[in-house]
Write a structure and sequence with these properties.
Number of strands: 9
Radius of gyration: 16 Å
Shape: globular
Low-confidence stretches: 1-6
Strand order of the largest sheet: 5-6-4-3-7-8-9
Order of helices and strands: HEEHHEHEEEEHEHE
Helix content: 25-40%
């Protein structure tokens, strides 16, 4: 069933993506907003991402912002909970324990702080990370470190688009995707 649904999802993802570039821009920008307008795609996206791995997670983690949206769709399709990995953490109180990590350089050469409340992941959880796009692998590496800091097991990262610059990351993290950027 995942194969049939995945083929339809992949086609709708390709159809909904637009590359935007002005004449003076050196690089084109991927415009993903067409994906979110397609109700059928939204319904099928979570199961398609969940189907990239055989191991069933007990929780899905999605980094802000689009990873949180599609991570919640994936968690709902699996019938498991969801944890949002936030940027720029602000503790509510001194006793509000967070687990935080700083990324290596991302696609914009930024180092970002990601984290979540420590009690949201338990030792023994099996965690699937979900995001829209993998480019440098910095976010996936950081989320994996956060998961391991909690004593949980990192299954891998399920992404919509694999745009990895370092192909070794597909195996090392691991990262699996519905689309390869070279086919877009």
């Amino acid at each position: 069933m995942h194969q049939q649904a995945g083929g339809g999802v992949r086609g709708r993802l390709r159809a909904g993506l637009r590359w935007r570039q002005d004449r003076v821009d050196r690089w084109a920008c991927a415009d993903l907003t067409g994906w979110w307008r397609d109700a059928e795609l939204l319904r099928d996206l979570g199961p398609a991402l969940a189907g990239l791995y055989d191991e069933t997670p007990t929780v899905v983690v999605g980094p802000v912002s689009r990873g949180a949206m599609i991570g919640a769709l994936t968690a709902a399709s699996l019938g498991v909970g969801f944890v949002e990995a936030r940027k720029e953490i602000a503790q509510a109180t001194d006793s509000d324990r967070w687990v935080c990590r700083t990324t290596g350089p991302d696609y914009r050469d930024r180092n970002l702080v990601f984290g979540f409340r420590r009690g949201l992941l338990q030792s023994g959880d099996r965690v699937l990370m979900v995001d829209d796009w993998a480019d440098t692998g910095a976010t996936a590496r950081t989320v994996r470190a956060l998961v391991e800091d909690c004593g949980a097991h990192f299954i891998g990262a399920a992404c919509i688009v694999d745009g990895l610059l370092d192909p070794r990351l597909r195996h090392d993290l691991p990262i699996r995707a519905l689309l390869d950027v070279r086919t877009l």
